[in-house]
Amino acid sequence: MDLEYWQKNWDQLGKDDPLWAILTLPGKENRQWDPVEFFETGRTEITSVLQRLSSLGISCPGGRALDFGCGVGRLSQALAEHFAEVHGVDISPSMIEQAHRFNRYPVKCFFHQNSTSRLDLFKDEFFDFVYTNIVLAHIEPRYAKDYIREFVRVLRPDGIAVFQLPSPTFLRGLFPQSFVEWHRRRKHRGKPFIGMFGIPEREVSALVNDLNSSILYVDRERNGWRWINLTYYLVRR
Fold first, then answer.
1. pLDDT computed for residue 90 by the predictor
2. 122: Cβ–Cβ under 8 A, 6 or more apart, which residues?
3. CB under 8 Å to 53, separation ≥6 — which residues?
4. Which of 21, 37, 51, 202 has its CA at a distance of 20 to 30 angstroms from the CA of residue 28?
């Protein structure tokens, strides 16, 4: 499936139930998320991430930050409390439209709709910090790898990127991608859905090394029988 397909898919999810499409917690479907509670989860998450960086001895200056796959700006606005300038990027026009509507920091928090596997709207070495969570997990690996390359390109030297991306377990790896695609088509029958993808950790490590960058640390958490949830802490050399 190409990016045009996924853009239409996520644009429809953004129209149907945007907050639940971003945080699919039980009992929050059918527009049951309270926006105040929803955005507070973003503040809690960013505070936790910055504390984790500090515990690892990783310095993160408060310059420019990128929130990739920003949705309606849940994390972008939380980042704006710690960084001088924040840019949120998402493939879905409907999500970006609502991000503008929810934006409490219009002077330093900016939102952009992007339809390609590159981030050409930003020049090289533009950001001090790149963050994305529960986003690359919903992007096909061929595109996710392109975005990781872009994260490094837009990072300044010694800039930090933190990104979450599952690695398939041995059992998940037994299912060929052609079977997975057939099952998805049969299950969803053309309706918008939240796809789940991953990249083996060894492939991510090799990609990062080729980009003249280093993975400083990886947090690991088992997520059912199919995935190992990994959070990578990357520095651009």
1. 98
2. 66, 87, 154
3. 59, 60, 160, 162, 233
4. 51
